[in-house]
Write a structure and sequence with these properties.
Shape: globular
CATH class of the largest domain: Alpha Beta
Order of helices and strands: EHEHEHEHEHEHEHEEEEEEEHHE
CATH topology of the largest domain: Dihydrodipicolinate Reductase, domain 2
Radius of gyration: 22 Å
Largest sheet: 9 strands, mixed
Helix content: 25-40%
Structural class: alpha/beta
Number of strands: 15
Number of helices: 9
CATH superfamily of the largest domain: Dihydrodipicolinate Reductase, domain 2
Length: 353
Amino acid sequence: MARRFVSVNNAPLRTAVVGYGYWGPNLVRNVMERPELEFAGLCDRDAGRAAAFSARYHGQPVFSDLDDVLADDAIDALVVATPPRTHHAIVRAALEAGKHVLVEKPLATTSEDAIDLLETAARHDRTLMPGHTFVYSPPVNKIKELISAGTLGEVYFVTSSRMNLGKYQADGVICDLAPHDLSILLYWLDEPVVEVAATGRSVFQAGVPETAFITLTFASGANANIQVSWLAPRKVREMTIVGSSRMVQYDDTAADEAVRVFDRGMEFAPPKTFGEYQLTYRSGDMVVPRLEAAEPLSLELADFARAIRTGAEPRSNAQLGLEIVLAMEAAEESLRRNGEPIAVENVPLRVAA
């Protein structure tokens, strides 16, 4: 998304956090720690959450009304961590008030709302950034380097499992967990999703699936299978990438060996005569790459500040956010149609003001 706005003031960007639920405390802490940002206060209508914040951060500003935040000309930016169904209204109001916005995933719950936010940000020359924190994760970026360098060869397919016991969300497991996997896959493969098929199960509340199985087809023909669930006996955060030259296992719960690169695979030689097939297995070394230690959320906020300052596009940009919403929307539609594959519409590279 093209923007003309560039901040020329080198003072820290005064940034307020909206929402102090599950993820809000992490955002508040990181906003306070980033030298490019200055914490401008918390906005939360819930008195209990506001009190919990004040007990931890004595004397810091607390707002109960979003309008008061939007009317404060001294506040440059908002970081929004509210339920997904509220994102469109809050983010649109903030952009129209001249604020830059980082909104936690997903950008919106429908593509119509997401496109409207991109258009509003362009119209007001503001930075709009969805919070897809995994694209700032050192293991994810190491694998991105391997794919870009051709180390894996042609990527055939990816499998992903993201499961745990809870946390139940009214928007469903696809909206809650799938954006993580979608952001990683779109970042790694750097090509659009063209078709989505999904099945799932709603156990406790009709229309709110706790488990879903999603199959994605990318423009190159590569496939990805994603399993997301709130009903699992243990926390699982694993992805496997199968390429023509190498395979990679990514385990986000592994502290020391989050990324493992396997020189393993199968090699097939076309038959020279009728009935002559040659299939060999390759089993080479397993390598654990060295990873830099860094907190992804801190890197994400630094990128947000850089985008505001320079006008550069952040890694987790609004166009990526829109593509994720489109894929998520297609998965929800496929779920309603009992697994029927749904074509994902062509996404424009840029949204004009």
